[in-house]
Design goal:
Length: 576
Amino acid sequence: MKKSTVDSRQSAVGEEVDSRQFIMQNQKVISYMYLFGLALMVVALPLSKYLISVTQFYLSGVLIIDNLNREKGIRFIKENSVIQKVLLFIPFGLAMIINAVILIFRKFFRKSNAPALIFVSIYLLHIIGLIFTNDFDYALKDLRVKLPIFILPLIISTSEALDKVKFRRLILIFVAAVIIGTLLCTNILLTKEVIDIRDISIFISHIRFSLMIVLAIFFLVYSIFERSPDKIFNRVIYFIILSWLVAYLFISVSLTGIVVLSITTFILLLYLIMKKKNLLARISTLAVIFIVAIVAIIYLNRIIKDVNKVNHVDLTKLEKVTGKGNNYWHDTTNKQTENGNYVWIYIATNEMRDAWNKRSDFDFDGKDKKSQDLKFTLIRFLTSKGYRKDTIGVSKLTDEEVRLVENGVANSFYHEKPNFHVRLYKTVWAFKMYQVTKNPSGNSVMQRFEYWRTSLKIIKENFWLGVGTGDMNQVFNKQYKKMNSSLEKRFRWRSHNQFMAIFIGFGIFGLIWFLFSFLYPPLKLKMFNDYYYLAFFIIITLSMLFEDTIETQAGVTFYAFFSAFFLFGRKSKAQI
C-alpha cells in the first residue's frame, strides 16, 4: 500500500515536472513567435501595406496564445476522454481565449502601465468624436485605419520586453528593409518612364517612406558612433549605407525627407552641445552648424535670384508679325517669366498648333502626361529656351525636347539641372506665381498654405468641440466652396497638419488631450534621454507639422509601432 502511494506520488511529481518543462519550452517558442512578428512589422512598414495589416493580426494571435492558461489546457487533455475532448473542444477553447483576453486587459489596465493607457487614449478620443459626426461610414473607416494606435501599444506593453541584442537586431532588420525599398524604387527610376518622381515609391506614400529613411539614417548614426565592440569594418559598412540613404533622398527629390533630416540633425546637435561640458566641442559644433546654415542660405538665395531674373526686352518695340506673315499676340501686362524670358509675348497660337501637331501625337489643345494643358506647357518650354511661340520656335525643338513637353516638363531648366535643385527652383517659382495669381494648384508646398488657411477658418467656426470623427471631408469641401477657393478640385485635400486635423475634429479640448497623450508617456518614462526615441520623436513631430501623419494606414502604423516599440517594448535605454 505504501509502495503504491509512493509510486503514485512519484508519478504525479514526474508529470508536474514534465508539464513545467513543456510550459517553459512553449514559452520560448512564443517568445520567438513574438520576435518574428516584430521583425515582420519592421519589414512591412517600408515595403507592404498588406503585410502591415496581416502582421497586426498575427501579433494579436501570439499575444492571446501567450496568455492562455497552459496548465489548464494540459489538464483538459490529460483528464478527458477522446469523445469528451471532441465534444468540449470548441466551448473549452472559447473559454480559454476569453480568459486570455481578460488577462491581457488586466495587464494592460494595471497602474504601472499608465503611460501606455494615456497613449492609447488618442483612439478613445476618436471614438468619443462619433457623438458629433454625421458621416458614420467615413467615421468607421477612420476608426479602422487608426486601430494600430490601440492594438500595437496593447500588444507591446503587455508582452515580453526585449533585451538589447534582440532590440538591435530588429533595428538592423528595419534598416535592411528600408535599403531594399530604396533599391527597388531606384530600379523603377532607371528602367521605366517616370513622369512624376514621386511615382517611384511603389510600396507606400513617398512622404511616409522618406520619414522611414530618415529614421533609418539616425539608427545608423548611432551604430557608427556608439561605444560598442563592433569592428571598424561594420562601422564602414554602416557609413556607406547611411551615405546611400542620404543620396536617395536627393535622388527621389524628397523635400520633406531632406527638411526633416536637416532639422532633426540640427536639434540633436544642439541637444548634444547642451550636454557637452567641453567648451571647444561646443564651439566646434556651433561653428559647423553656422557654416552649413550660411551655405544653405547662399544656395537658396542663388535660386531665388535665378527665378526672379528678367532679361531686358523693350516692350514698346515688339515685332508684330511672324516670319510667315501671321500676327503675334503680346500681353505686356503679364510679367510672368521662364529663365528670365517673358512668357506672354511673341505668341502665334495657330502656327504653334499646326507645327506641334505635325511633330507629336499629343494634341496641342489636349493634355500632357501630367494632365496639364499641353499648349501652356509648350508655351512655357519654348519661352525657357528663348524661342518665340511660332512655327520656327516649335521647329527648333529636338525630338527629346518634344518628349519632355509631352511628359509635362514646362522648363528646359528642369531637365538640365539636378533634381533637388529643380525642386527648390519649382517651389520658389510657384511661390512667385502664387503671389500674382493666388492659385496654388499643382505645387504641394503652395497648396499647404491654402490647406492651412482653410483649416484655420474651420477651426474658428468649430473652436470648442470640433466637427467630429467622420465629417472632416464634408466640412473641408464646404469651406472651399464658401471661400470660393482658387484651388482646383483635384487638389482640394485636408489640412496637411496633424495638430490642425485634431483641432478640427475634436476642438480645443481634443487638441489639449492629444498633446497630453503625445507628451506624457515619454516624459513619465524619461525617454527624452534615449537616443532612439528622441530621434523618432523629432521626426514624427516635424512630420505632423507638414502632414496628416496618422490619417493613413502607413503613417499611423509607423507612429503607433515605433512609439510603442521605443516606449514600452525594451528593457534598456540608449542614453545620449
